[in-house]
Amino acid sequence: MFGTAPMKLFSCRSSKDLAQRIADKIGIELGKSSVTSFSDGEFQPCFDESVRGCMVFIVQSTNPPADNLFELLLMIDAAKRASAYKVIAVIPYYGFARQDRKDRPRVSIGSKLSADLLSTAGVDRVITMDLHADQIQGFFNVPVDHLFGSAIFAPYIANLKLKNLTVSAPDMGGSKRANAYSRHLQSEMVLCYKLRKKPNVIEEMSIIGEVEGRNVVIIDDMVDTAGTLALAANMMKDRGATSIRAFATHPILSGNALERINESALEELVVTDSVPFTNSSKKIKVLSIAEIFARTIKAVTENQSISTNFVF
Question: How far apart are CA 301 and CA 303, in angstroms?
């Protein structure tokens, strides 16, 4: 128990392993819940213990399929109807975040719709990490604690003690993130500029800056098909980079991503366990975010500042 209300931590099915690690770090048992499935694919989550008057934290990343998001919505609704004091959604990876604006006519803004659905379900607070775009926080009318993978990536990079370090962003949209790393690590920075024909298809890429003789680390919020990452790494190697590593918080790794990574010039890809995946690549290293989420959950329940979780 923390603060004035009892705290309980639960998990939806997709993030069960991460939730258990978070519970272990906090020093509590993971709450008991179950899901009833029907033959047509419908499912009904259920809390198998009382949550009346409790601060209920529900852990679930909302990566596809959409069932992951809908299961979280059902769990939030169930907690509210069971008289929970507060319901906090712990969403390590906030899905549909790439749909944060109308970039062409007649398309939805999926990340805003997801935020509205969570609010309608009754969520009182959201804890998430490395949103695809910072402005997504403004889509919510409840507090959002936005954590950053830099809390674990920056110390890891510093411990590598790389000489001639250069930080890179895989596209112009990641320049702010890369610049923050560059200033913190006191390194140079280069940018990749890419044009897309359509989602996941790159038409053209160019590198802005010098990488010859440099140890490059590419920083991104997610790696999906790894097409951009592999192309950037190969181009940097061709331009004389000494080594290329990549750091991406969310390992979506769809399609032929693992094959592209294995065949690329990348020496290492470091990711977190925000999204469950089967790692069959020797190049991929997984760092756990359980500790930072555990500290944040404790701080929220005790009405303490969470700013100590931020490296920069």
Answer: 6
What are the pLDDT digits (tens) for 192-215? 987 766 665 655 788 999 999 999
What percentage of residues in the chain have a pLDDT greater than 70?
Answer: 96
pTM as predicted: 0.94
Which residue among 25, 80, 112, 194 is the active-site one? 194
Q: Is 194 a catalytic residue?
A: yes
